[in-house]
Amino acid sequence: MSGASLIQVERVTKRHGSVLALDGLSLEIAQGEFFALLGPSGCGKTSLLRLIAGFETPDQGRILIDGHDMTGVPPHRRPVNMMFQSYALFPHMDVAHNIAFGLKQEGVTKREIADRVAAILHLVQLEGLQKRRPDQLSGGQKSRVALARALVKRPKLLLLDEPLAALDRRLRETTQFEITRLQKSLGTSFLIVTHDQREAMVMTQRIAVMRAGRIEQIGAPAEIYEQPASRYVAEFIGDINLLPGKVVAADANRYTIATCAGSIELVCAKQHAEGQAVSVAVRPERIRIERLSGQGVLKPSPNRLTGRIEERAYLGEATLYTIKLDGDFLLRAVRQNASTDEGPMEPGGKIIATFAPEAASLIAQ
Amino acid sequence: MSGKKKHIAQRGRGLVIALPYLWLILFFLAPFFLVLKVSLSQSVLGQPPYAPVFDDWSIAAVSNRLQSFTLAAYAGLLEDSLYLQSYVNSLAIAAAATCIMLLIGYPFALAIARAAPQRRPLLVMLAIAPFWTSSLIRVYAWIMILKDEGLLNHALMALGLIKTPLTIFASNWAVLIGVVYSYLPFMVLPLVASLEKQDKALREAAADLGASPFAVFWRITLPLSLPGILAGSLLTFIPAAGEFVIPDLLGGSDTVMIGATLWNDFFANRDWPTAAAAALLMLLLLVGPFILYERIELYKSDS
């Protein structure tokens, strides 16, 4: 975390009828940070965003923005602005008036409004569209207007509620980079809510993975991806193999695990006692496979698992193999189609799958 | 789709579209021309009480008739100050009633539109519940409330707010109350429809951008409900201006509204051409601004 914390969420609980949306959740977001709340629908991420914006009030706990307790402060007096999932552009106003709306409420002078609107239109590359009405804009343009309308207020924190869900894939990817670029150049804290793990990883510095009103894990994208704290996180973010086993030897952070497919050695920073039931977590792209007949192309590795290719799925840039290991565990391995000289491996062929001890991690069962 | 089926489908579609046109021609356009015809004729003693128009379709007779057409009935409208007074009075009462209905109906509609979705149908039903009783009986009931020794005066005097009874019954005030009471649902329903479909996120966005609850209402809710306001106002203003029963039951001798004046001319004076001309002028006064508005909207959306 860099700098002082801008947002402090302290043991916030929120119920919607009988549904517990947030369950004593605490969270801190730093000044200038790009932070993501990631989780499936119904995990409470949107509720938390709405509580910070002030549209809803916590049942218990409190939220501080820049050190000020926001309890009882209505949305229009909070130093945060939101980009809505539906964009919520005012249909009876043109682009310029939509963007100027918030500044008028502040009582900013006409001259300054004109300057700031022009500047923000330049920033989001919407010059020349001032007079358009929302129904005359494309989806991408609408998202930029929504972003500009929130940013022109110079909020301490920008809230983004699934901002790109309505865009097609290509536009979504370019917009992701644009928002990231904007965030870096402005230095404003951004808090994004998304169910798209790629989006969260591409854009943000820290991610909180949420589940049933609680935070399951907080960390940098690489940390969450490489060292998932729980089975839930591991399975929610990307594809992963979870091979059940038991710790047979633990020496500092080096472990030996007995699994149905054989013995596995790995390095894990977390503490696990000998005899504990664990899962060995390995990402498919970390596994290297070669034909059993092949003459030692791969570096020698302590983790050599033998098996047979069950299925092959061509993904374009890579090929996904499903391998039945000795002991009947189904292992997924991805091989980049970077070079054509190796050629695809046929289903039914016997293979050896290897991975480095550093490539795997342990998750308690 | 086979050729024959397609043909049948097209004919079916034509029939469905033709039905409303047929309805309008039969029950609006045809009567309209009948009234227009009468208005261009002259009053005579006899049955029917106007000079016959287009009863003989020979060319000579038609051209003869065309020459005998007269705008005398329309000129008569302008000469008779009773008509002018009736028009002004009708439009004034209708306008005042529409404004009052808007002021009462808007909060009413807002409350329904913002209620929990599962409770809305019940509230809408309650709003239109008075229609389940005959409107005549309900207007009669207002006589009992408003007359000098009626419920309202009794209540006010019992509370010590007034010493002598208020004279509301048999005045324009009573007509105004009656019109507002009778037509309020027609104002509320279009408003509910328009307010209900407003996206809640728009209000949240406005609040998020720093608008106080009042500013949210003034700059978002109200402007977005303008179509509903217009629809409700038209639905109440037009029938209120032509209202006959309410002024007849609740109004006094000084309450001259166009409905009653028309009735008098038609049945008491048997001056059908003048009554017909008066009806057409009223139509023009009521529909004219509406068509103008439509034109402006059309022009705006084109540009």
What this model shows, in words?
- The two termini of chain A are 30 Å apart.
- In chain A, the strands form 4 sheets. Chain A has a 6-stranded mixed β-sheet, sandwiched between helices. A 5-stranded antiparallel β-sheet of chain A has the order 13-12-11-14-20, with no helix packed on it. In chain A, strands 15-19-16-17-18 form a 5-stranded antiparallel β-sheet, with no helix packed on it.
- The relative contact order of chain A is 0.11.
- In chain A, 23% of the residues lie in helices and 36% in strands.
- Chain A is built from 8 helices and 20 strands.
- The longest helix of chain A has 18 residues, at 169-186.
- Chain B has 303 residues and is mainly alpha-helical.
- Chain B has a single domain, classed as MetI-like (MetI-like fold, Orthogonal Bundle).
- Helix content of chain B is 75%, strand content 0%.
- Chain B has helices spanning 3-39, 59-68, 72-79, 81-114, 120-128, 135-146, 151-158, 172-196, 200-208, 213-224, 226-241, 245-250, 258-268, 272-302.
- In chain B, helix 1 packs across helix 14 and helix 13 packs antiparallel against helix 14.
- The radius of gyration of chain B is 25 Å and the shape is globular.
- The A-B interface holds A 53-55, 74-77, 80-82, 84-86, 88, 90-92, 101-102, 105-106, 149-150, 153 and B 199, 201-202, 204-213, 215, 219-220, 223-224.
